[in-house]
Design a protein that fits this description.
Blueprint (H helix, E strand, L loop, with lengths): L26 H40 L11 H4 L27 E4 L4 H15 L3 H10 L4 H10 L1 H8 L2 H4 L13 H9 L22 E3 L5 E3 H12 L21 H7 L4 H15 L3 E3 L7 E4 L13 E3 L6 E3 L12 H21 L3 E3 L6 E3 L6 E3 L6 E3 L33 H34 L1 H11 L9 H25 L4 H25 L8 H23 L5
Antiparallel strand pairs: 1-5, 2-3, 4-5, 6-7, 8-9, 10-11
């Protein structure tokens, strides 16, 4: 892609209202095709049911022959198989029927958190069968290994006792016969718990009640430590107050590392079990390598990624919540930030946090007019400023004369390039530090400016519907679809401001001088197109030209997508 590839003339787009009527002729054909596919799927399901019934009878007959084999074999139930994803990878997210189908071409699903329970249950069920441990222990083991089955299986079969002890389920996996995990309890006390024989009163080491308790008034852990029901209830209630960390709460006995599970919670505080299970599901979402909470305020939807790489390795896209309409990066949870990578964005945000006080001191909320020095506050997204005192027109970014930003004088946005000037000769530490600070402030100032412009565009988008009503009222023969172009234009402005904001973050870490020069050229053109669209959309309704706005919206959209694709391809000619 050369500098000449994107001339302004090439991006002239002639709009015609007839275009909106195109592309509707094939709907009936798609519907008929879909109905045919559904009929075929129904036939396949019936034949599959008969086949599964025959296979189940064969498996039952063969189970006795394989029971004497000492090796651990992986067994799969019909429930689990029906939820497995296609492919042989064991870490792939299980499928749960039609409600787990991908909603769009990106392969990213948005689901309520409750609909992830079958996925979690299937993972626990397989671990229970393969490892031969109780489901409560399998839950802990899977959680401590971030739900990566293969990693758990490998470590478990290499040294099961070590893995069980590290995860706090040694006694639970050994049927309650595990040794004292540092609690200091005598062997006779543990034997009393196991046999539950005799009428001798038992003592709770938390409340130290002098009268003691009957055996049925005590609740014991697999490690052998017992406490009264009242103390257990208080302990569980206090653990739940800590929030999601309650799923890693250990035995009340000091020094014991055996973890409590839903079994103890159900016996000690049945009314608190739903809350504990909610925290278990939340822990699953936060530690499973292919799920992420929607960051929208108060939204409980979860993004589920396809692929098998874990930690969203195969999910290169942006998730869009089907409930709150929030868009976010599936890998880091931030707003979509193309073209900058998640790693560079994290570095940039950390740098901004460390140096923001200096930057905020330099970048005040107001700027003086270059001609009369009157203080001016920017209250719209466009960078074409006009002083209300002297009517001087200038650029908000470089404070230069706006007349010098025309197409005949090198481009609307020549000020987007960083020029270190002639200070490169001074190699002192102070000079180097100043140059680095100037370079950072150059990118931060423009990053911050587009961030503010994005906020202005979002605010204008909320007010767009009222403007659309007024525009429709001005023309009696106009329908609602004729004024939707204004909303489309404002949505495009929000997207462009966001992309432009992150182009400066990307440019800050782009060290290749030749690539940076090409990138800044295309960045300049995108800013020019965006500024043109901003001015057109901010005009009074009586002066607004619908065709111009529609054409410029499509030009900006096409150019923005081409730049992002250009960066993804490595900016190679």
């Amino acid at each position: 892609m050369s500098d000449e590839d994107y001339s302004e003339e090439e991006y002239e787009y002639e709009y015609s209202d007839a275009e909106s009527d195109a592309g509707t002729d094939d709907v009936s054909m798609d519907a008929r095709s879909q109905e045919g596919e559904e009929d075929a799927d129904d036939d396949d399901d019936e034949s599959m049911t008969d086949s599964n019934n025959n296979n189940n009878s064969k498996k039952k007959a063969a189970s006795d022959n394989g029971s004497s084999n000492g090796t651990n074999k992986r067994r799969s139930t019909g429930t689990f198989d029906s939820r497995r994803r296609s492919g042989d990878n064991p870490n792939a997210a299980p499928m749960g029927g039609g409600k787990f189908d991908f909603d769009d071409g990106s392969g990213i699903r948005m689901l309520p958190a409750d609909e992830l329970k079958p996925i979690m249950t299937a993972q626990i069920q397989e671990a229970t069968e393969v490892l031969g441990v109780p489901p409560s222990a399998a839950t802990v083991l899977m959680r401590e290994h971030k739900w990566a089955k293969e990693r758990l299986f490998q470590g478990f079969f290499d040294n099961p006792d070590k893995v069980q002890q590290k995860c706090g389920v040694l006694a639970r996996c050994q049927g309650g016969s595990g040794g004292d995990e540092g609690g200091g309890e005598s062997g006779s006390s543990k034997a009393a718990k196991r046999t539950r024989a005799g009428t001798k009163k038992k003592h709770c080491e938390i409340c130290l009640d002098e009268d003691g308790f009957d055996a049925d008034e005590m609740i014991g852990m697999p490690c052998g430590h017992e406490f009264c029901e009242t103390c257990w209830y208080g302990y569980v209630a206090n653990a739940l107050e800590r929030g999601p960390l309650c799923v890693r709460e250990s035995c009340p006995q000091a020094g014991c590392k055996e973890l409590i599970t839903e079994e103890e919670v159900e016996r000690a505080a049945p009314d608190l079990l739903p809350k504990f299970e909610t925290y278990q599901l939340r822990s699953f979402v936060e530690t499973y390598g292919m799920t992420r909470w929607c960051p929208g305020p108060g939204c409980g939807q979860v993004a589920v990624a396809p692929g098998s790489g874990g930690v969203f390795a195969d999910a290169g896209g942006v998730a869009r919540c089907n409930k709150c309409e929030t868009c976010f990066c599936l890998k880091c949870g931030e707003e979509p930030h193309a073209p900058v990578t998640c790693k560079d964005l994290a570095m940039w945000q950390e740098k901004c946090r460390n140096e923001s006080e200096t930057a905020n001191w330099i970048l005040a909320n107001t700027k003086p007019c270059p001609k009369c020095s009157s203080r001016i506050e920017k209250n719209q997204g466009c960078n074409h400023m006009t002083c209300s005192s002297c009517r001087y027109e200038f650029c908000w970014i470089c404070m230069g004369d706006w007349a010098a930003h025309g197409a005949n004088t090198g481009g609307y946005y020549k000020c987007n390039k960083f020029d270190a000037g002639n200070e490169g000769d001074d190699q002192s530490d102070a000079a180097k530090a100043k140059r680095e600070l100037d370079r950072y402030l150059h990118y931060y100032k423009r990053y911050h400016n587009h961030s503010q412009a994005q906020d202005f565009a979002k605010k204008a988008l909320k007010e767009t519907e009222a403007r659309m009503v007024l525009l429709q009222e001005q023309n009696t023969d106009t329908v609602w679809t004729d004024v939707e172009f204004l909303k489309t234009a404002n949505e495009q402005l929000v997207e462009c401001r966001k992309v432009l904001k992150y182009t400066y973050c990307y440019g800050f870490y782009l060290l290749d001088a030749e690539k940076r020069q090409r990138f800044e050229y295309h960045q300049e053109m995108l800013e020019r197109f965006t500024e043109n669209l901003s001015e057109l959309s901010e005009k009074p309704l009586r002066e607004m030209n619908r065709t111009e706005v529609v054409n410029q919206t499509r030009v900006v959209d096409r150019f923005m997508k081409n730049i992002l694709e250009y960066v993804d391809n490595g900016m190679e000619d």
